């Protein structure tokens, strides 16, 4: 079974609007971390936000927030007030407590911000 | 966050040859990681490089094909040996952050013809 599932290959959003990128995960560990990364066309991987499995509040970092629903095993990324520079691939990832430093990445969502 | 550089940033190589990719970090780190991202795909961990010990390879990756060196706490190299077109990918190194995140280098775009 896939550890991380991203079901949206591509998304479009109007500039200044909010957008939600979906991510579901599969683990039997109680301790795990969830991450979102942005990959522009240049290829670098930019860390955006982290949510720990024991964190009771949803993580926020500027215009990024993570909608963490533990019972549903989902960790959706919300980008508010989209900007043209947000156009990129977005990857959801998980690190399980039992698997050391192994990161499992989803297949990514390509976000295009429309002026 | 750590500042990570990689060399080369991109290269075009002929099949059967080898390429060594360098990864330099601006701070000392115990572990460094090497990932491969094939065209249009997600990232796959190749190996974990610990200073002073042999690298730990993930399933599907072997030392003969991807030898790794880790001579000190700020530097590592990954060699892609006897290349074929299927090795065309972005290769990224990463290091752990202060909490649980990983920070990635800018990547090396490899095209094998």
Give a quick precis of the structure.
With 115 residues, chain A is mostly beta strands. Helix content of chain A is 0%, strand content 51%. In chain A, the strands form 3 sheets. In chain A, strands 2, 5, 6, 10, 11 and 12 form a 6-stranded mixed sheet that branches. A 4-stranded antiparallel sheet of chain A has the order 3-9-8-7, with no helix packed on it.
SSE run of chain B: EEEEEEEEEEE
Instruction: Count all strands of chain B and give the number.
Output: 11
Calculate the terminal CA-CA distance of chain A, rounded to whole Å.
38 Å
User: What are the segments of chain A in which pLDDT stays under 50 over at least 5 consecutive residues?
Assistant: none
- Please estimate the helix content of chain B: under 10%
Give the overall form of chain A: globular
Mean pLDDT of chain A: 94
Number of helices of chain A: 0
**Backbone structural class of chain B:** mainly beta
> How would a textbook summarize the main sheet of chain B?
7 strands, mixed
Give the amount of beta strand of chain A, in percent: over 45%
Helix content of chain A: under 10%
Task: Give a verbal description of the structure.
The complex is a heterodimer of chains A (115) and B (113). Chain A has no helices and twelve strands. By secondary structure, chain A is mainly β. In chain A, strand 10 and strand 11 form a beta hairpin. Chain A is globular. The mean pLDDT of chain A is 94. Chain B is globular, with a radius of gyration of 13 Å. The mean pLDDT of chain B is 93. At the A-B interface, strand 5 and strand 6 of A face strand 5, strand 9 and strand 10 of B.
